[in-house]
Amino acid sequence: MTDWVADIRVLLKPSVNDPQGLSIRNALRTLGFATVTDVRAGKLIQVRLSAPDRAAAEAALNAMCAQLLANPVIEMYTFSLDEAPTPVL
Predict the structure, then answer these.
(1) What is the distance between the alpha carbons of residues 13 and 44, in angstroms, rounded to a whole number?
(2) Which helix (H) or strand (E) holds 28?
(3) CB–CB of 67/8 below 8 Å?
(4) d(CA 1, CA 14)
(5) Structural domains in the chain?
(6) What's the pTM value of the predicted model, to 2 decimals?
(7) What strands lie across the sheet with 75-83, from one edge to the other?
(8) Is residue 29 helix, strand or coil?
(9) Do 39 and 28 form a contact (C-beta atoms < 8 A)?
(10) Read out DSSP for 46-67?
């Protein structure tokens, strides 16, 4: 078994209104960042898991996202996956 670390990014789909993103955009523009035209707010979830290979880890992550971490009706997700560093003792 190999230990893996995944960073999962969940965002609202582009067709879904994002009031938090709009508030952030407006606040940034008020602070003088006039070039900001759009902001989408989301969440970052870091998961550490054990799996025999990359394909198994990716399959497990897709299942986690589909069943719990993202709402497929209004959200989309992407993830990056790397082997976890070996702890130094």
Answers:
(1) 15
(2) helix 19-30
(3) no
(4) 38
(5) 2-83 (3.30.1280.10)
(6) 0.87
(7) 42-51, 2-12, 75-83
(8) helix
(9) yes
(10) EEEEEESSHHHHHHHHHHHIII
Q: Which residue has the tokens 């497990």?
A: 60
Could you read off the pLDDT of 11-31 as tens digits, one per residue?
999 999 999 999 999 999 999
How far is 9 from 43, CA to CA, in rounded Å? 6
**Tokens standing for 51?**
């799996």
Q: Kindly provide the b/e burial profile for residues 14-52, where b requires at least 16 CB atoms within 10 angstroms of the residue's own CB.
A: eeeebeebeeebeeeeeeeeeeeeebeebeebebebebe
- Dihedral (C-alpha) 61, 3, 49, 47: value to the nearest 10 degrees? -80
Q: Over the stretch 19-65, which tens digit does the pLDDT of each residue have? A: 999 999 999 999 999 999 999 999 999 999 999 999 999 999 999 99
* Other CB atoms within 10 Å distance of the CB of residue 64: 18
